[in-house]
Design goal:
- The chain is an alpha/beta fold.
- It is built from 30 helices and 18 strands.
- It has a six-stranded mixed beta sheet with strand order 5-7-8-9-6-10, with helices on both faces. Strands 11-13-14-15-12-16 form a six-stranded mixed beta sheet, covered by helices on one side. Strands 1-2 form a two-stranded antiparallel ribbon.
């Protein structure tokens, strides 16, 4: 617990001496005891006088053994002889207590604030658990064979400086639940059986373990950071926390260290480094596991607090999903639990909880800077680094531990060619960041290339410029210093405007394929909530999760979410405007590429247009563009026969409609075991026009093979 073999032997000798002293006290003739009732205790001067030094120890009777030390007990004799033996026992107990560190029971008394009388009562209870002969002595001492157990009444008759307030629930014996009182109906508290808590018995014997009642809720955290796991920016945070805790160490109540941000792995490393620096073992408590009933919360808090006083422990509470609850401390289990604790507590939250009544220290834990991430990649990759570190650090936002793991995994049996290693690392980073996003948006597997995109030259140039800026942002922002000049607008937001089916989604896929970045279509039904404040929370989770992988966020039908702010007429208008205001701020600070697609550009809030880096217009395709689309509508493996692409280009429909017509025609041809022919395509086109409620002239859909097909 506190020392090596020598301390264990010393603690065993102390417990043997304590038990011997206890047996001598119990074996003293009854006439020599000061029989006192609770009422006399209230008025006797000895109840209030200064307690004397009472470390008493004796050698005991042969045959009773605790550990290696024999216990010699006096035979029943006269009062003078008994008192003399007790005095000898007191001297032996003082001698056994003179070890460094002190015996476990002495440490417990000091840390939990037990008086000398309360410590003697605890020895009485522990003796009952360790020495089978104590039961009969307790029965004889109380003059009742039916009471072979310790009671407060027995303690009052045995020990000096007895104090009635030891029975109080506010005193350590009962407050820390060192004793369990078995009180039958109608039985006085003072004569009820006392049992020492099993964990306390183990502690007094020198056993070091966490109370098993906590093991269902807590788990040990082995997160001490290696030198390479924490960058300089995070080591500065560790030093600042240590300095603050050092200033507060004079008081028993340290501030709760609130670790803010989304990087859970780094927050645990920082907390682990702080705990290790002050010699504490850290345990993790997920906030959702906390009980909800006040009595259960109080019992848990008191049990943990007792353990943290007896052992060098720190508590890490993971409440990263319960920030809203922490901000309402008067009505939540988590806040009530935190306010009952003292000692070292780390609270993992997204935002600070200023309403907690206990002193707090809020610390932002951000990911390492891009420069630090690049250095970490170089260190992990060594000679195989090439230009991969800068590219990876520019695109992905990862902690040092994740970088180290991915680099190690990617280099196992990896070819020596640097570009191949770079691709392996890139794919590993994409895979690592995907799980955070898959619950918030739908991933689109991008297969489209520039060849599939039919747009005017000006719009294609804009899209290529967007791709180039995303690829080179590390160079401009970090190497060329733009990130130091401005802190906002380091991401890229673009608007795709145009009618439905004109290629907005296809263009997003092309950018995703070109840049090798995950593309996610935002499901507005999963983001927008009718409950006040929930939409902002969902959006925050979305943007924070996308940051790590630099994913492309594709907001289809963006006017539903990014619409103009309205005049405030009621509370609904006010909260709707708050959502838009949050979006305005968050989309500007997003490091990745956010694409807003709409066919109603005029419906967007003007403040969004100012924050957009590019606006790409997707016009309704002309005849030339539609002909090119028809020529690429059918894959090379699709059997076709005499298709007149010039004739099909005269159909006034968009690229999305052309794709639907081609797909429906292919299914019709496959069902008829026929190649795709013009009649089949025209019939599918007529169906598509009916669907979009366009006027149809049957004469336009008649087909004569002699009209001249273009294969």
């Amino acid at each position: 617990m506190t020392g090596g073999t020598d301390w264990v032997d010393g603690n065993t000798r102390y417990m043997a001496a304590a038990l011997a002293w206890l047996r001598a006290c119990l074996d003293r003739p009854a006439s020599d005891r000061q029989e006192q009732s609770p009422q006399t205790l209230l008025v006797t001067p000895s109840a209030t006088e200064e307690p004397k030094s009472r470390w008493k120890n004796i050698l005991g009777r042969p045959g009773a053994v605790v550990g290696k030390a024999p216990i010699l007990l006096p035979a029943a004799g006269n009062e003078v002889e008994a008192n003399h033996l007790i005095a000898q026992a007191a001297q032996a107990l003082d001698a056994a207590a003179a070890i460094d560190p002190p015996p476990a029971l002495v440490i417990l008394a000091q840390r939990l604030g037990l008086s000398k009388f309360e410590q003697d009562v605890l020895i009485l209870g522990v003796g009952m658990e360790l020495d089978t002969g104590i039961a009969s002595l307790c029965a004889r001492g109380q003059g009742d064979d039916r009471r072979p157990f310790p009671t407060f009444a027995l303690a009052f008759s045995l020990f000096e400086n007895a104090s009635w307030d030891a029975l109080s629930p506010e005193r350590p014996l009962r407050y820390w639940r060192l004793l369990e009182i078995t009180q039958s109906p109608g039985q006085p508290l003072i004569s009820s059986a006392l049992h020492v808590d099993e964990r306390i018995v183990g502690y007094c014997k020198g056993l070091s373990y966490l109370d098993d009642r906590l093991l269902s809720l807590l788990s040990p955290m082995d997160v001490t950071a290696a030198p390479a796991d924490l960058p300089a920016s995070h080591r500065e945070v560790v030093e600042s926390i240590l300095q603050r805790l050092k200033l507060a160490e004079a008081s028993r109540s340290l501030p709760i260290v609130q670790l803010l941000g989304t990087d859970a792995a780094t927050k645990r490393l920082v907390a682990g480094e702080v705990a290790a620096s002050i010699g504490l073992q850290m345990y993790l408590l997920p906030a959702p596991l906390l009980p909800t009933q006040p009595t259960d919360i109080e019992a848990l808090a008191r049990l943990w607090q007792r353990e943290s006083l007896l052992l060098p422990l720190a508590l890490y509470v993971d409440a990263s999903t319960q920030t809203a609850e922490v901000t309402a401390p008067n009505t939540t289990a988590l806040a009530h639990f935190l306010e009952r604790l003292e000692g070292a507590v780390f609270l993992d939250v997204l935002d600070a909880a200023p309403a907690l009544r206990r002193a707090t220290l809020a610390v932002d834990i951000a990911k390492p800077t891009p420069a630090e991430q690049s250095a970490a990649w170089k260190s992990a990759l060594g000679a195989a680094a090439s230009d991969a570190p800068d590219q990876l650090a520019g695109q992905f936002n990862l902690s040092f531990s994740v970088i180290s793991r991915l680099a190690r995994e990617a280099q196992i049996d990896a070819p020596a060619d640097p570009p191949t290693l770079r691709d392996r690392l890139w794919d590993a980073c994409l895979t690592s960041t995907r799980p955070q996003m898959d619950t918030l948006a739908r991933r689109i597997v991008a297969t489209a290339t520039w060849a599939d995109l039919i747009l005017p030259a000006a719009e294609c140039a804009l899209l290529r410029q967007i791709a180039a800026q995303v690829a080179q942002r590390s160079t401009v922002y970090e190497k060329w210093g733009f990130s130091q000049k401005v802190s906002r607008g380091l991401g890229m937001s673009v608007l795709f405007s145009g009618e439905s089916g004109t290629g907005k989604t296809l263009a997003a896929e092309v950018l995703s394929h070109e840049l090798r970045i995950n593309l996610y279509r935002i499901d507005l039904s999963a983001v927008v909530s009718k409950y006040i404040g929930e939409t902002e929370k969902n959006l925050r989770r979305l943007f924070d999760a996308a940051e790590d992988g630099g994913a492309i966020l594709f907001f289809d039908e963006a006017d539903a979410l990014f619409g103009s702010r309205s005049e405030v007429k009621d509370s609904h208008d006010r909260y709707a405007n708050i959502e838009i205001n949050y979006l305005l701020q968050r989309i500007e600070s997003y490091r990745g590429l956010a694409i807003l697609a709409t066919n109603m550009k005029s419906a967007l809030d003007n403040a969004f247009l100012r924050r957009l880096r590019f606006v790409v217009r997707f016009p309704f395709p002309g005849v030339a563009e539609r002909k090119a689309m028809w020529q690429r509508a059918f894959p090379a493996d699709t059997p076709t026969a005499a298709l007149d692409y010039q004739r099909l280009a005269r159909l006034n429909i968009t690229g999305g409609n052309i794709h639907n017509v081609a797909l429906n025609a292919a299914f019709t041809a496959a069902s008829a075991a026929s190649p795709v022919t013009m009649p089949i395509v025209l019939d599918a086109a007529k169906t598509e026009l009916r669907k979009i409620e366009r006027p149809i002239n049957d004469a336009d859909f008649r087909w004569e093979p002699s009209a001249g097909a273009v294969a």
